[in-house]
Amino acid sequence: MAISFAEENYLKIIYRLSESTSDDISTNAIAELTQNKAASVTDMLRKMSEKGWVNYQKYQGVRLSEAGEKIALDIVRKHRLWEVFLVNKMGFNWDEVHEIAEQLEHIESEVLIDKLDAFLDYPRTDPHGDPIPNKKGELPQLGYIPLANMPMGKAGKLVGVAQDSAVFLQLLTKLNLKLGANLEITEINAFDLSVSLRIDGNPPVLISHEVAKNVLIKR
Amino acid sequence: MAISFAEENYLKIIYRLSESTSDDISTNAIAELTQNKAASVTDMLRKMSEKGWVNYQKYQGVRLSEAGEKIALDIVRKHRLWEVFLVNKMGFNWDEVHEIAEQLEHIESEVLIDKLDAFLDYPRTDPHGDPIPNKKGELPQLGYIPLANMPMGKAGKLVGVAQDSAVFLQLLTKLNLKLGANLEITEINAFDLSVSLRIDGNPPVLISHEVAKNVLIKR
DNA sequence: AATAATTTTTAGTCTAGTCTAAAAATTTTA
DNA sequence: TAAAATTTTTAGACTAGACTAAAAATTATT
Fold it and tell me: B99–A91: do the CB atoms touch at under 8 Å?
């Protein structure tokens, strides 16, 4: 079944929202990320539900179906591989590549993506540390994930960092974030994706999304 | 002024048609290449004329304006650079890359194209021997062009070939196409782009587009 | 030059994807 | 738990870009 750019975007965004919660995804949340109005989202959800890509009940939010998740993972795979290309081969900084990858992820050619994957030496994560699904849609078992990708309420152990700039490591020290620390996310703020974090059972402290992305944890 | 995929495609196709004639381009010719109906083309030409990208007079055909040609050359530049990438870096054959490049040519990022250009070592031609415009929209002076790119009625001298497979060179010999031969195109068949060619003043013989693309001439 | 054939344009329709305004359902608050 | 606030949906409208059918203009043919 043919799929449009718009549909691909909706699926990708529902996937992204699903990554950080196990609840159903709300119309408003999708509207914000797609930059559309809620009414437009409702309409699209109805259509995608008919195509079998999402499970959608009026007023109850939405969830990807298995078929929808497969498509979403394929788009995520393309997005992240292109990001690796842009950073490793084209010399972009990791903070410059998102918009371009948003365009490249819609290029349709399985062969191209396989060749790109090989050309990049089969990377397991993108420049931001996010895992790259394989062509079957399976996420690599990394043994760790960025703290930023851990769902709310879950706990894990700090096992590494994705960056080793001096300023970053100094900040970790100041926050009392050491290797082996037990971490639990108590809140994720939608506005800036900053995270309230309980460290070794102490009262939660606030850390930025930027920091959370570079802290690697094992569940 | 924002430009859509559809508009970019029309401009590119009008440019391509202009390359092999100095006449105004007909609605039907555009319809065939865009795979649209003539009525749709008329409509689009009217709109693009209002935006100043083409000079269009009802029933009289169309021609790119200076602004339109600038845009078209930019798309052609992107298309051809991506083709080089696909062949030289991704290992595609030169006959497999067109459809993918048709998609990639619409990616919007000047910086990316500049970096790609550098990454590819500033190629002057694409894998088919077609010249790659620079970022100002200027075509490189190659000193030669593929015979397939020579306008009808013009003459030139055979100065080289773009391929040296045995079968190709044997065919040239059979056709009496030698270095230094004086060539004049007497007809281009729209159906298969095959070319009627007068060699050293002899009666014209027919050669395929495939051959014409690999024969290099100096005007 | 008149007629026939072809090309191009006009007029009206359709779909995808968006929007606004208002109605309906759900959630929060007092 | 009733009222208020918020979220979501419905209904109807709009635009870009396509289409078909018929009319108009151009080109080719007797």
Answer: no
Predicted ipTM of the assembly:
0.80
User: Quick one: closest CA in A to B114, which residue?
Assistant: A90
The CATH code that applies to domain B145-218 is 2.30.30.90
Q: Which of A156-170, B57-71, B132-146 has the lowest mean pLDDT?
A: A156-170
Q: In whole angstroms, give the CA distance from residue A8 to residue A74.
A: 10
Would you call B51 an interface residue with chain A, using a CB distance cutoff of 8 Å? Answer: no
Q: What is the pLDDT of residues A199-213, one digit of tens each?
A: 998 999 999 988 998
Q: What is the pLDDT of residues A3-24, one digit of tens each?
A: 999 999 999 999 999 987 889 9
Give the nearest chain A residue to B90 (CA atoms): A115
Spatial CA neighbour of B16 closest among B85, B84, B68, B81:
B68
Domain locations along chain A: 5-64, 145-218
Q: What CATH code would you report for A5-64?
A: 1.10.10.10
Residue B146 amino acid letter:
P
Rounded CA-CA distance B7/B44 in Å is 8
